[in-house]
From TrEMBL:
Official protein name in the record: DUF523 domain-containing protein
Organism: Candidatus Electrothrix aestuarii
A Pfam short name: 2-thiour_desulf
Amino acid sequence: MKKCLISSCLIGLCTRYDGQSKPNERCLKYLDDFIYIPVCPEQLGGLPTPRPPAELRGGDGMDVLTGFASVINKDDQDVTQQFLAGAEAVLKIARDQNIRLALLKAKSPSCGVKQLGVTAALLETNGIKLVEF
């Protein structure tokens, strides 16, 4: 059976910034064909749950990876290093498990695909297919 990564909040784990989850029925059905590994890049980067919401400033996740943008939380604290550390931790899991697909939470500064988050950018640049829910 194929493996994939999934944003842990999409399967009902309370890992979002607000301590809630965001289960997605369409995503859960998609998982029927996979062994999945839930990840929360922000927790893996050392941030607590709950935590102040954060946003990308100065660009998207790719710009954060190249040092041209940052991640700032609602309290005006720079959490860029935690987001980068979390993205690296998720990439390591993907590599260790030979995973080529990640199912990620939309509109997240870590996991967003259309609004490219930090983790999504790092996974994409390393050849991992991204699907947003």
